[in-house]
Write a structure and sequence with these properties.
The chain has helices at 18-23, 35-44, 61-71, 86-93, 107-118, 123-141, 152-164, 168-179, 189-205, 209-222, 229-242, 246-257, 264-278; strands at residues 4-10, 27-33, 49-53, 77-81, 99-102. With 279 residues, the chain is an alpha/beta fold.
């Protein structure tokens, strides 16, 4: 059975969002950068839902909602926003949205909302995830369980929240704690791998590009099948640019252009190469 198509309207920095990796388990997630690209992709295929991050400053998310609604009056739209952007949510709501969530996204809530709007069969899966969360919470509250495992997913999302708020040192402390965890459930391994990727992003924020490259290379080696693999390559190339190691940066951009699947990272790499060719 083919996966249902969902379009996300975001920018390349949001490729690191963990909720996208979770949605890809059940849906065919197609990304667009800006409203015009979104409208173009909506012409090329049938989509069951559009998810728009209106908190981005690189494009007018409110305008994107209006344009999509004019062309596709029945298409379900879900909006993501920072809590500080409540007024933007209210502005776009009058144009017809079907739901909204505040960042950082609670994956369980998003899956539940998406399953209902797309009439898909993952509602039961979302309920199972909710049950797992309740069981985890119950274990945390139980007494005499001093050797309970660290709640790795909760720590990971806490680190994401600190990073989103620009609290870099707090984020780094949490991601390092996750990475160095010795006892964990095997199903939580990806959170440990992804924490390595997020740690690399933290080093970029501190302008330590050499350390960021070292961390990204570790991530690429340890998690070759991760959804963040291409993003890690791209950020590594940008670090080399900052270090004026242009040849290394270009080599990675060339590799990305031919690395499947073709997505917004591929497009961004092409633009980078064209910039170097124009110099």
């Amino acid at each position: 059975m083919d996966k249902i198509n969902i379009l996300t309207l975001d920018n390349t920095t949001a490729l690191v969002s963990p909720w996208k990796a979770d949605l890809r388990r059940y849906f065919n997630l197609v990304e667009a950068v800006g409203g015009f690209e979104a409208l173009s992709k909506l012409k090329q295929a049938e989509y069951a839902l559009v998810i728009i991050n209106i908190s981005l400053r690189s494009f007018d998310g409110s305008d994107a909602v209006i344009r999509i609604r004019q062309k596709h009056p029945q298409l379900p739209i879900v909006v993501l926003a920072d809590k500080a952007d409540v007024r933007f949510v209210k502005n776009v709501a009058v144009h017809g949205i079907h739901g909204y969530l505040f960042l950082p996204v609670n994956t369980t809530q998003l899956l539940s909302m998406v399953s209902k709007l797309t009439h898909s069969d993952i509602a039961e899966i979302a309920d199972t995830l909710m049950q797992e969360e309740r069981e985890i919470q119950k274990k945390k509250e139980e007494k005499n369980q001093s050797e309970d495992l660290e709640d790795i997913p909760a720590l990971y999302y806490e680190g994401q929240s600190h990073l989103a708020r620009g609290e870099i040192q707090q984020a780094m402390d949490i991601f390092n704690k996750v990475i160095n965890t010795k006892r964990f459930k095997d199903t939580w391994r990806r959170y440990i791998e992804d924490s390595l990727f997020q740690l690399g992003r933290c080093y970029i924020k501190t302008n330590d590009h050499n350390k960021a490259i070292e961390i990204f290379n570790q991530f690429i080696q340890k998690a070759p099948t991760s959804d963040f693999n291409k993003a890690a390559h791209f950020l590594t190339a940008e670090c080399y640019e900052q270090l004026n190691e242009t040849a290394r940066a270009i080599a990675i951009y060339k590799k990305l252009v031919n690395m499947p699947p073709f997505d917004s990272v591929s497009t961004k790499a092409r633009k980078k190469l064209k910039k170097f060719q124009a110099i």
